[in-house]
Amino acid sequence: PRKRILASMSYGLLGTLLLLLPEGRWVQQRQRQLWVRPGETAELSCHTSHASNSVNWYKEKPDGGLYWIYWSSEFSFMKGKYLGKKKSQCNFSLSVSPVQREDSGVYYCSSSDFFPLFGNGTRLIVTSEYPVGHPAAGDIATEVSKKSSKACFFVFFFFCSTAQVQNEV
Known about the structure:
Blueprint: H1 2-20, E1 27-28, E2 33-36, E3 42-48, E4 54-60, E5 66-73, E6 82-86, E7 91-96, E8 105-111, E9 122-126, E10 142-145, E11 151-154, E12 158-161, E13 165-168
Parallel strand pairs: 2-9
Antiparallel strand pairs: 1-3, 3-7, 4-5, 4-8, 6-7, 8-9, 10-13, 11-12
């Protein structure tokens, strides 16, 4: 009887851990590149497939490592030039203001869950001159594909899903 109880407790613990695995969950940064002039404000976005209380923001170092710069939540505050916001259950942002050339680099957001997931990164380019053919600030070209509307579900945990894809150049 004692072995049977321990075995069922082990299976119960294993089942609970499997529920916590991030399968089907993701973190997305829709902006691949963001071009901003020195002195302006850069706003980076982060979208999670599941409701989250917060996300962490990192900047890539020249050696490829990451260093932590900010924690975005509904209780955000200004930290130097950074301000993060929780815009909805699944949407977060990081504002960098005023940007300087040294702020250029790749920024990553990650979920603050037990199993952190990272976005694909947004390259912030701080320059006073845009390359020929690049849309000017404010005129950034966007491709929007509306395949379905956003839906949020509550199963054992709250998660969000959207088929509306917006890629910003």
